[in-house]
Recover the amino acids of this structure.
């Protein structure tokens, strides 16, 4: 048995740090009082609610299943945790004492497990969760049926559908072992099924290959092959001899065809010697003509080049350059400096003109915005900006003085003894109003004057700026001066470049000398010699071919009197080959067919031996497959699992009827009707009426859950049970 010792909650709901012992060997009732409820409370109902009675016990399933009993979704433990919250359960299993802590860390929930005070380390939280499941092995269904009875959770056996009741039994009695066995059986079944399919494929292939065996015996085929091979060898020898004769005849006829018997070999050799001598002479004349033409073209090109250089030197001399290169370079440097200075002068003049234009624009803007009268413009040209600034200060003082008088009179206009702030004379209300009006007029006139004075001041400032800048510069005159300098510099650059070319041309002319060549010599056309040489070479090729034929005929083993005699012998040998060639082809085809049958016999025999061995190796698989096929059906969804559920249902029925008088006030008999698809739990009352337990009243439903606990607990192994039973609100209503 697993002995739970203590559950502790830190910063969970209403608990700052609350601990509850769980190892008391007695019935304990957890009570509480809500101190926030004031006044008289009917039967103390509200004063006992919302104090954390259920919360402290729900920490156990929250730790184990990551969700409290009333959770509407899985993994909702995060809803209870916040900040540094934690849940710790201390318990003993076997001879070791454990403590499991679930705590909030960032966006996730973490687990720590200690054994006998030593922290167990896990690289992943999944490993820690698996360890917790092995230490607290009850499934969620077992926990809420055997350890934690909460009326807020519907019991599947009492309220659930048929499918939910089947699932409840599988969860409580851990019938998923049938699934695990079925999975292993199915894996082995599929392996054996594959091997049986292979065995059948081997048998089918063996039968098919056996049909492929030739009808004749292997030894008979070999004997027939040797006989036909010897006969074929003799016929082939005859045909090959005939083909060799045909080849000799064909060569002789090819060489002899077109030959003139009257032409002797020595005449052909003499003619070839004459033609080769003519070819050598023509080739030399062709080379001489090509060389002469090349020298002539080189001479004419040199003459043309020298003429062009002299013409260019004449053009440079006509420029009439009297200065030296050094003088021209010094002059160009001087002109470049003058052009640079001219550009700087133009830049300064342009900048000055822009500033004068900007000052004029500002003056025009002041005149346009202020609409100054002519007399004020004249005044601006006659006084300094300092004098205008003094006038502005006077007008500002006038405005300020009159505003102070008005402000003073406003504070004293309802007083019986108002006095003038200047002369201290007593004033009536009417007199004060008159002074205020005059002060306001004075302020208005001063502001008009101030506006005009500010415009005059702006005009005067720009007027003085314009006077300081001086007169507008003549940019066109400066630009014309610079352009003249640039033209003069360009002319000097041309002269420097011309002197450079003059030196280059004189050097080239000195180096370019006329080659030695007799221009008066008559030129021969190389193409005439080339065409004649080609004709002679064609004749040489024809005579060489003729001579080669004569030499080849002399080397042949067999000679014939004439081309006609060779042709007659050729026809005779061809007829001999035509007679024996079909016989040879037929014999060869027969020989190939027998050889193919022998090879096929050998291949098929090897395949049959291989397949027979495979069939022998897989023969035992069939028996194993039949066994696993039966086991697979037995452990299917409608097999032993359903039988086991029906057996457990009958045992549960017996236990419930044995213990019913301990829970129910009136006699009720319970019946379990379980088929492959239906799961009925019926209650028969003392009056003979029978109904499904779904129809029990609320109080009867709570009694049914307790009876279910008593009926199931004998089936649960001690190592899977806890030392406590929590009944939350079991007596409510």
């Amino acid at each position: 048995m697993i002995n739970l010792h203590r559950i502790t909650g830190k910063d969970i709901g209403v608990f700052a740090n609350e601990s509850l012992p769980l190892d008391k060997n007695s019935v304990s009732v957890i009570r509480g009082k809500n101190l926030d409820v004031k006044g008289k409370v009917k039967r103390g109902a509200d004063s006992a609610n919302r104090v954390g009675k259920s919360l402290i016990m729900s920490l156990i399933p929250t730790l184990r299943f990551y969700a409290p009993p009333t959770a509407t979704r899985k993994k909702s433990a995060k809803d209870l945790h916040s900040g540094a919250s934690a849940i710790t359960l201390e318990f003993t299993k076997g001879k070791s004492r454990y403590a499991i802590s679930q705590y909030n860390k960032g966006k996730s929930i973490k687990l720590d497990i200690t054994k006998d005070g030593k922290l167990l380390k896990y690289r992943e939280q999944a490993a820690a969760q698996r360890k917790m499941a092995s230490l607290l092995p009850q499934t969620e269904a077992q926990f809420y049926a055997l350890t934690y009875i909460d009326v807020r959770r519907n019991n599947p056996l009492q309220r659930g559908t048929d499918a939910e009741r089947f699932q409840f039994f599988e969860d409580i009695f851990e019938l998923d072992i049938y699934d695990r066995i079925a999975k292993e059986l199915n894996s082995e079944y599929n392996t054996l099924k594959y091997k049986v399919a292979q065995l059948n494929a081997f048998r089918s292939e063996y039968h098919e290959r056996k049909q492929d065996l030739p009808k004749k015996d292997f030894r008979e085929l070999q004997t027939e092959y040797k006989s036909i091979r010897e006969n074929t060898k003799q016929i082939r020898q005859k045909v090959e001899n005939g083909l060799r004769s045909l080849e000799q005849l064909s060569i002789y006829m090819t060489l002899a065809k077109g030959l003139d018997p009257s032409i002797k070999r020595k005449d052909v050799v003499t003619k070839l010697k004459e033609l080769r001598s003519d070819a050598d002479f023509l080739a030399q004349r062709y080379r001489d003509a090509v060389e002469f033409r090349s020298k002539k073209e080189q001479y004419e090109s040199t003459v043309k080049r020298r003429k062009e250089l002299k013409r260019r030197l004449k053009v440079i001399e006509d420029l009439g350059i009297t200065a030296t290169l050094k003088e021209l370079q010094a002059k160009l440097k001087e002109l470049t400096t003058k052009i640079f200075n001219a550009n700087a002068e133009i830049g300064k003049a342009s900048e000055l003109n822009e500033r004068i234009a900007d000052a004029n624009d500002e003056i025009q803007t002041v005149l346009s915005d202020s609409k100054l009268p002519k007399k004020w413009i004249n005044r601006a040209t006659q006084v300094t900006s300092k004098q205008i600034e003094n006038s502005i200060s006077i007008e500002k003082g006038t405005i300020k003085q009159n505003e102070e008088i008005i402000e003073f009179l406003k504070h004293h206009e309802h007083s019986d003894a108002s006095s003038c702030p200047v002369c201290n004379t007593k004033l009536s209300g009417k007199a004060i109003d008159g002074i205020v009006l005059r002060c306001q007029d004075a302020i208005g006139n001063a502001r008009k004057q101030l506006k005009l004075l500010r415009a005059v001041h702006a005009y005067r400032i720009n007027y003085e700026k314009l006077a300081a800048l001086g007169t507008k510069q003549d940019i066109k005159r400066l630009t014309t001066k610079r352009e003249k300098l640039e033209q003069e510099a360009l002319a000097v650059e041309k002269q420097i470049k011309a002197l450079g070319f003059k030196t280059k041309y004189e050097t080239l002319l000195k180096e370019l000398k006329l080659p030695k060549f007799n221009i008066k010599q008559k030129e021969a056309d190389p193409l005439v010699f080339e065409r004649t040489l080609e004709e002679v070479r064609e004749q040489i090729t024809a005579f060489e071919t003729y001579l080669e034929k004569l030499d080849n005929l002399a080397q042949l083993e067999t000679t014939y009197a004439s081309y006609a005699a060779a042709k007659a012998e050729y026809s005779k040998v061809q007829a001999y080959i035509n007679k024996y060639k079909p016989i040879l082809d037929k014999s060869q085809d027969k020989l190939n067919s027998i050889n193919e049958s022998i090879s096929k016999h050998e291949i098929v025999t090897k395949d049959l031996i291989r397949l027979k061995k495979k069939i022998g190796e897989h023969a035992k698989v069939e028996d194993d497959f039949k066994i696993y096929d039966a086991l697979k059906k037995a452990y299917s969804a409608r097999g032993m699992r359903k039988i086991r559920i029906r057996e457990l249902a009958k045992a549960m029925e017996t236990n419930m009827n044995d213990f019913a008088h301990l829970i129910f006030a009136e006699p009720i008999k319970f019946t379990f009707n379980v088929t492959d698809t239906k799961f009925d739990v019926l209650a028969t009352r003392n009056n003979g009426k029978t109904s499904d337990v779904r129809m029990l009243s609320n109080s009867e439903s709570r009694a049914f859950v307790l009876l279910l606990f008593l009926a199931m607990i004998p089936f649960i192994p001690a190592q899977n049970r806890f030392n406590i039973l929590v009944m939350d609100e079991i007596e409510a209503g």
Observations:
- The chain has 17 helices and eleven strands.
- The chain has a mean pLDDT of 81.
- The longest helix spans residues 563-634.
- The longest strand covers residues 3-12.
